[in-house]
Structures are given as structure tokens and as C-alpha cells.
Amino acid sequence: MVTSTSKLAINGGKPISETPLKPESWPPVSEETAERMKELYLSREWSFHSPAEQEFARAYADYHGAKHGIFMVNGTVTIQCALAALGVGEGDEVIVPALTWMATAMAAYYLGATPVFVDLEPSTLCLDPDQLEDAITPKTGAVVPVHLYSSMADLEKILQICESKGVPVVEDCAHMQGGKWDGRGVGSWGHVGSFSFQQSKTLSCGEGGICLTDDDELADRIFRLKHIGYAPGNEQGRPSGSPPEDLVCHNFRATAFQALILREQLRNLSERIELYDKNASKIREHLENVPGVRVQSRGRLASPQGYYAIVFIFDEEPCRDVPRASLVEALEAEGLNVGGTYGPVYDHVLFNPPEDRYRIHGGRCEVAEYVATERAVSLSHPWLGADEETIDAVGEIFTKVATQADDIKSLDTEGK
Ligand SMILES: *Cc1c(COP(=O)(O)O)cnc(C)c1O
Q: What is the pTM of this model?
């Protein structure tokens, strides 16, 4: 049997898995949902705050312990509407973590605000609360912490700092469907919580998003923002009154088909997260005493943790000096094709605001630029839905590559 002490496959040894390992197929489909989709199609109730949309938004808000859920077309405009509802606009700054999907920063930029990037905690790779206080200025209109990959931003510390400064918080929960912080759903802690249901997310309908909030006025404003000014409960063609003058309202409505798919998936969400949590714990246990590699830590008060991806960081001896590309090659040779991480938003090829339209707090973000980008690899969440053998093999492969990292180093220099 090939074990973690056998010769590395990249050095001519036998791989842990002869054929590339595979994650669960994504997204999940079922005949039952297909049947309901057909019924919905025949019902002709496809949009305009349809019963399917109302049912899903209610169920999703309930799941996360929030009073209101406002369903939309994606998880970018949800952030934009949350910020707009809070009055963020031109001249304001919006604090976001340096490592996240671009949408978090672009949502602020769309409103004419200036994204301010703050570095990460090395353990969670989420917004570093210790750098937050300093980054807040009289211009700060909101802080948008992101619950990233398989961790959570430290809500306790962040909310405490923001409360003391009177700055609202919008949680970007695009990676954290069903995750709970200290027993209560993410997205229900800040003034607004934003979720994405894009194809790759843990709950997915192709494209979609939702805002959660406990605040009646914010809920009304967000609803009007996405529904060209209509108030909740208005029938098509019969608005009950005008939206407030400060709101520039859009059509960001999603269809009933998206809502229906999500309503069906939501029934299994807690079960799915439980499975992910169990398998992530197994992988963590595998690597607990393996020097050289660590797993992004769970959110401090996660109960349970949600998952978008599991992230492995090679920033200790004997792995720290092995180039990331060589580690990826070694993992692939053992049968595991890993992915990367986002990298800092301001370095993303698609991020194009001019330099005077964003700010990097402290001038650079070392953890985002180096630790999370140069030293990390990821496995997307469907890997955590794989069978037991695959999960064990993943643990074995990381163990094998990390413990024999010195042999990758020598291979690399011999090749040059
Ligand atoms: C996916 C994602 C979003 C929103 O993306 P959409 O594709 O517009 O739904 C926002 N923030 C993060 C961190 C994301 O991963």
C-alpha cells in the first residue's frame, strides 16, 4: 500500500491515487425538483415577487434567524443595495478585506464610494479586527467583513469596534450559507447580511442573492432598491407610493425558478454542512501533527462552520521555501488537482478602478499578498461531499507532500 512515507510520485514513486480523485458533482440535481420546476413553469408565476420567491426568502431568513429576506439576481447587487440602503455614496469610504471576490469592493465603487482594503488575520484569512480601528476615518460609510472560504470574520470584535465608532456593518456571507456564529446565523449579526447563490456556491441556482436584515426600514429600502421602487406587497402596476428620493432604484429581481431551486436545496442545507464539517474535521485531524502545512482555521465561534472551500497554507518548515507551483505539481502527481485562492482584489486582472479611487490601508497587505496568495491552495466545497476513501486520500496526500517537501526542493534545484 502506498502511504505518506512512500517515495513521492513526482520523484518516480507510486501515487496515493492512480487516477485523479474526484469531488461530488456540482451543483446537485434531483428528479423531484425537476418535477416542481415543470409545475412552476405551467403556473405562469415566474417573477414579480412570486409565491416561490416569497416562500424561499421567508425560509432562508428564518434559517439564519433574521426578520427579513430580500431575494435578488446575484450576490453583488445585494451588497450594493445594502450599502445604498445605508446611505453610502460618493465621498464615502467602505472598508473591505484585501482578500475576497472583487464584488465586495466593486459594490462600493458602483455607488461612487472608495473601497479601502485592510489586511487579514493569518489564521482565518478574514478581515483583521486589530487593523480595523485604525482604518476607520470620519469618511467610513460601512465595513464589509467577508466570511471567507471556511472561516468567519471575527464578528464579536468587528461589531464592537464598529458600534463604538457608529459605523454600520454589512456581512458578505457569499461563502457561508447556513453558517452560524455563536449559535445564530451569519448575516443576521450586521445591519445587513448578503449572500450569493451563484453556481459554485454552497446553495446555488445558477445566479441569485439575498439580503437579510432585522431592520424594518432597511428591509423596505432594500426591497424598493431591487424592485424599481415598489414597496413590499404591491401588485404589479399598482405601486402604493413613491420610493424615498435618495434611493436610485433598479430592477434586480430574480425569477421564481431560481427561488424554487434554492427552496428545495435549503431542505438539505444543514445536513450538507454537517457532512462538510465532519469531513473537514477529518482532514484537519490528518494534518494536525504534520509540520509545514496548516488548514485555514474555523471561525472562532463557528457553530457550525459553513464551507465554500477548504484552504491549505504551506507557510512553515519544511514547506515554506518550496515554490507554490512545485507543491501543486507534487499534489497533482499524487492524484489531487487543487485550486488556488483569490489573491488581493487590487491585483486582480479584472479590477480596474484608477488608483485614486481605492486605498490600501497601511500601503500593503502582507498576509493577503503573500500568505494567502503565494503559500495557499484550495479545494472547493464539493470535495467535502466526497466519499470517505477520497477524504482519507486527501489527508494522506497533503501529509505525504508536506513531510517530504525537502525532496521537492532538491528536485526543483536539480532541474535548473
Ligand atoms: C460570489 C461572491 C460574491 C457575489 O457574487 P455573485 O457572483 O455576484 O453572486 C460576493 N462576495 C464573495 C466573497 C463571493 O465569493
A: 0.97
